[in-house]
Amino acid sequence: MTLTASNMTFWNWAQHLIKLNCLLRGTLSAFNDGALCNHLEAHLDDGLKARIKHSDACKDKVFKTWVLAVCLIDEACTVETKHQQELFEEIIQHQAKHQNTDGLHGPSRHANTSQANASTSTTSTSTSSSVHLLALTDAECTLLNEHDGCTKCRCFYTYHHSQLCPNGFPVGKGYKTLTLFNALTAKKSKAVSKTSTKVVAATIEAVESDEEINAAAAMLPNSPGTFDSDSEDYDTLSNRDTISCSLHAKHLLWDCQVHSLISDFPVKTHALLDNGTHLVLIQPELIDQLGLKKYHLHTPEIIDVAFNNKKKKTTELYFYVKHSLTSLDSYWTSRTVKALVMPELCTPIILGLPWLIHNSIVTDHEACM
Length: 369
Prior knowledge:
Blueprint: H1 3-6, H2 10-22, H3 33-42, H4 46-53, H5 63-105, H6 109-129, H7 138-146, H8 180-192, E1 205-206, H9 232-238, E2 252-258, E3 267-273, E4 281-282, H10 284-290, E5 295-304, E6 314-323, E7 326-327, E8 337-341, E9 349-351, H11 353-358
Parallel strand pairs: 3-9, 4-8
Antiparallel strand pairs: 1-2, 2-3, 2-7, 4-9, 5-6, 6-8
Helix pairs in contact: 5-6
């Protein structure tokens, strides 16, 4: 399956091959990341293959980063080809108009001079407007990833990915290479305007019963004392306004979507918001569905349950993934965080304090928002 014969963009063609390779998992015919990268590179068209050979993309050994780099080069080639085609059509139209003028009025030195000047002016204007946009370098990609930037519009602290970029590619004319100074300037301006930023309220689903999720993610220690109905302290407590206070509250769930690496469409899921846990957790089943890459911890994370049992059951977590979540209307995308892989989790994702802090989330518990 070659890129030329598929009549697709590189991104769609690569995603199609990745999905086909997923069907071969568990067999000897399945490609690993290295073999899949070699297969894609070998079946590119000659023009794109030559561009990759003379760019920094050929030095990248990470499959996902390589695919994104080649995708940017392919999009840049498409834009350049379109500009060249428009310039060629404009020159052809101008020549045809020039020939019609000579046929009607005969040879004229003044007309030839003015048309030659007009042709030169049009050509120079078209050439200046079709300046090729340079491909991102490895240093620029690293800066954009570290400062929550977008590899499409090449802006820092945009909090969206290239697939959901509403801005488009920057203009090639006058483009300057991204530097750390640009990233810090964008961070500073973002911090200044943060106080005047419009607050986005996302409705959180309140679970009506505990049949869907029956878990206590965080608990306070037991009360140091016990009160009997015949004691004096019981009368003191009964005078307090505790009648309207419920014994338990509903879980706070957020319906969201996660972008998959093996599909063109995001996966819809829901996450439990919990400001009482110090971790972000994710189910291994969801990781397999998304095709996320798992990273190994140098030191395992040891956790135990919140209940004060005599026999504590500890669990060691060895792997984590990197992911970001997007609202169902694609209006807002969270910043990327690390989530520990937790088997037998009560919900697909638990968003603990690291996610809430990193995204500056404020929760109105009473309004469930």
